[in-house]
Amino acid sequence: MFSGSIVALITPFNLDGEVDYVSLKKLVDYHVAAGSNGIVAVGTTGESSTLTIEEHVKVVMKTVEFADGRIPVIAGTGANATHESVTFSRLLNNSGIAGCLSVTPYYNKPTQEGLFQHYKAIAEESDVPQILYNVPGRTAVDLLPETVARLAEIESIVALKDATGDLSRIAIHRELCGENFILLSGDDSTGLDFVKQGGNGVISVTNNIAAEDMANMFRLASEGKFEEAEIINQRLMPLHKNLFVESSPIPVKWAAHKLGLIEHGGLRLPLTELSENARPIVAQAMTEACIY
After folding, report:
1. Which residues bind pyruvate (predicted)?
2. I want to staple 129 with a disulfide (CB 3.0 to 4.6 A). Which of 8, 158, 206, 252 is the partner?
3. 137-156 pLDDT, tens per residue?
4. Is 120 a catalytic residue?
């Protein structure tokens, strides 16, 4: 259902801070042409925490419209208040999305039981498959494998995006959740190794600016051609690492603007544009990856 190279899509803004839907359409077309396997609209890389609910839903709906059935669109529906995530799910029912991706609630640090109840409530209000998203480095809470296993028993919860970078969890999740449960990496640096060890794919930041390479790499991996995939991966490694030289999506939006994929590289406060000191680092990574 969900596999290969899926982009954690940036949300482009105009100079006045409003969503740039012309650039959004350009991005969708870019990923269709490049062979990306899916789009996550308004996930955390899409600056979901700075969009209003109305903007959030509109960006997802416009992404579905621009995709026009050519590529699956997964909606980011995460929030640190369960009622807000439930609201997103309700508003996006019957919208044409392929699934929902919900990050663990950030800042309030729920218990494992709280996480279970949070995701159970979301699943009960949605009509599409659900993807759990664990990124403790940004949320200060870790969705443990035992809790993932409990949630995997809910029919509509079909996948996990694991951005811990801990490859030892793959085997644990497989054992606890079964072979049919979908495991997606959320860490570009270890994404290929994740698939080598039994994962199904990656939800990627690098994919925003190197979509064709990422699609080819994970296609080769799916065919068992890991040596060929590794050649691409090593070339892209400077991007995997240096697109996080400052808080994501600051570097990748700067890079996307440099490549002409979006009209402007602006962000919403409290995020600010890439610093002068970091720009040569990202530019060098783009050059080493042969995309600039």
Report:
1. 45, 203
2. 158
3. 999 999 999 999 999 999 99
4. no
Task: Say whether 133 is catalytic.
Answer: yes
Does residue 18 carry a pLDDT above 90? yes
Q: Is the pTM of this model over 0.85?
A: yes
User: What is the domain-level CATH number for residue 109?
Assistant: 3.20.20.70
How many domains would you assign to the chain?
1
Tokens in use for 284?
Answer: 């060098």
Could you list the residue range(s) of the whole structural domain that residue 118 is in? 4-226
- Nearest-10 Cα torsion for 202, 208, 213, 216: 40
Binding-site members for pyruvate are 45, 203
The answer to whether residues 104 and 73 touch, using CB atoms and an 8 Å cutoff, is no
User: Which of 161, 196, 225, 241 is the catalytic position?
Assistant: 161
Q: Is residue 58 assigned to a domain? A: yes
In a domain, 170, yes or no: yes
Is residue 3 over pLDDT 90?
yes
Contacts of 166 (CB under 8 A, 6+ apart): none
Q: Which of 133, 225, 241, 258 is catalytic?
A: 133
H or E stretch covering 130? strand 130-134
Annotated binding site: 45, 203
**What is the Cα–Cα distance from 133 to 74, expressed in whole angstroms?**
13
